[in-house]
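Checklist before submission:
- one chain only
- standard amino acids only
- sequence pasted in full

Submission:
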Amino acid sequence: MLTTYLGFAIVIIIIVFLFVYSDQTFNIYLLLYVIGAISVIAGGTITSVNSGKSIAAGLFFIGALAIFVIFGLKWFSPGSVFAKTPVSWPPTINTCPDYLVQYVRNTPSGPENCCIDLIGISKKGEGVLKVFPKEALNDSTKVPINNISYFSLKTDSSDATAKKQELCKRAIDAGLTWEGITNGESCTIPSGNGIAPDGTIIPAGCPKL
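Returned file contents:
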């Protein structure tokens, strides 16, 4: 029993040490590692003690403890891969809706940033967003002049949230998805909820019908 209590005490010390050494960044990887360490060290030690192998239990305890401490410091010390906390998704939002390509369109008022559909990704067909002819990429005489061939990135507002909602509505109207902007049915926001095109809040996982 003494060995068992001592084992749990030292494992707790490992948990505290790893937590402090990882710069207060307790994450799921560290939690899983600690659970594994407790299971292996305590389980192996208790099994050996119950079998009457006290010396083997002591050697196993010391060896397993050393291994977990060494790898714990290697994997969860500041700057290591597993010590980093998960980042929000998406890390960055693409310039254009999914599978569309950025394109600078020449207009009478000057260059305009927009996106073009080269593969027919729109769920609503060419009645909303027409497929851009690939030959026009290398031949300016074949560049379409109809607005239906372009997904404009120009917005009326400069406010980040309002701009995002405006682009979201435009993407939904065109039958497009846009990671970080819209899932094709509702607008996504950082909290995980959705904003319907009419501005109403939709709980995450419950698209507007």
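Reviewer check: The helical segments are 2-21, 28-50, 54-76, 160-173.
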